[in-house]
Amino acid sequence: MFQVENWGLIDYEEAWARQMELVKSVQEKRDRNVLVLCQHPTVITIGKNGTSKNVIANSNFLNMMGVKVIDIDRGGDVTLHNPGQIVGYPIFNLSSYKEDLHWFLREIEQAIIDLLSVYNIESERVGGMTGVWVESKRKICAMGMHCSRWVTYHGFALNVNNNLREFDYIVPCGIEDKGVTSIENETGTVIVLDNVVNECIKSFEKHF
Which CATH class is domain 3-207? Predict the structure, then answer.
């Protein structure tokens, strides 16, 4: 099992610092698993496999809009977080589950796929691409993880009712021929984010 911490809307760098404190604690004590759920003000992050070339927007424009571009140590390329997107940081000791990061990634993907089915959204994996997709061409959940001493951190970003136009600032995940979508966009109805948070927790409880 795991504990849930809901940090609400929190600055990305503050959340990163708090996340690393949790990672250190779990690595040292091996006494718990923690699923952090939160939202971030608009921010662009570049993973260790990424490149700033996939940030399309002019740096002066991003500065004017107050959007930071931050290099981080997760896997993956460029992504964007903004309000209305559920960001999940599973800080899990895989030694208490299975010491297999690929298994862990697939379980998270399936947990998201199961969650989306609650909203009658058919979603799937796309071969060779981490994350969850609708009709194999619209990404609804991005993922990027890091694992150290079998403790995971960073995680997933599920688009719920966020402003998808802001993804025009980047080439999402460095993939030029696919788009992004959200639960609200796919259902055409108003979606309450807190309700999705609750469904997310229930889905993770089934898998972990």
Answer: alpha beta
- The residues annotated as belonging to the active site are 173
Q: Taking a C-beta distance cutoff of 8 angstroms, is the pair 170, 78 a contact?
A: yes
Distance, in Å, from the CA atom of 1 to the CA atom of 3, rounded to the nearest integer, reads 7
* Strands of the sheet with 78-81, listed across from one edge: 68-71, 43-46, 78-81
Q: Tens of pLDDT along 12-58? A: 999 999 999 999 999 999 999 999 999 999 999 998 877 788 899 99
Q: What is the pLDDT of residues 100-141, one digit of tens each?
A: 999 999 999 999 999 999 999 999 999 888 899 999 999 999
Decide if 126 contacts 133 (C-beta within 8 A): yes
- In the numeric block, the tokens 């600032």 are attached to 169
CB 32 within 8 A of CB 2: yes
Coil, strand, or helix at residue 75? coil
Indicate the domain borders of the chain.
3-207
